[in-house]
Amino acid sequence: MAELKKFEEYQLDIPVIAEPAKDQPIEIEVTTTSPKKKLRHITYLERIVVMALVVAGVALAVMTIQMRTSVNQTLTDIGQIQNEVNTTKTDITRLEQEKGELSRADRVQKIAKEKGLKDHADNIRKVK
């Protein structure tokens, strides 16, 4: 069987903390630091880095606003151009219909007879 090793006792030096007397109030020292004192501990490089981050943030905000403005302007321009295209298409359709009505053969012959023109069958050509 396995034998146990001999155990040696060690004495630890633990300091004894004296308890404060109950009749004496506990004094707590509060030190306040003003922002100026805190800023004195910031190095020059840290100040440059913080300023660079602030400038970068402002630049990104300005660029975002500029991009949104340009996108909105472009969308407005596209809408106006689409309205112009639709108006032009409507005008083209209306004018083609009017051209078709004005160039009907029976209308042309009716006007020609009213003006006293005669029909020459050998001079008539079909135009598409």
TrEMBL record:
* Superkingdom classification of source: Bacteria
- Main subcellular location: membrane
- Transmembrane regions listed in the UniProt entry: 44-65
Looking at the UniProt record for this protein, which Gene Ontology cellular component terms does it annotate, in alphabetical order?
cell division site; plasma membrane
**Higher taxonomy:** Bacteria, Bacillati, Bacillota, Bacilli, Lactobacillales
Please state which protein family the record places this protein in: Belongs to the FtsL family.
Q: What is this protein called?
A: Cell division protein FtsL
Translocase listed as a keyword: no
| Compartments in which it is found | Cell membrane
What keywords does the record list, in alphabetical order? Cell cycle, Cell division, Cell membrane, Coiled coil, Membrane, Transmembrane, Transmembrane helix
- Which chain positions lie within coiled-coil regions? 78-105
List, alphabetically, the InterPro entries matched. Cell_div_FtsL (IPR011922), FtsL-like (IPR045755)
Function field: Essential cell division protein.
The membrane topology of this protein is: Single-pass type II membrane protein
For biological process, the GO terms are: FtsZ-dependent cytokinesis
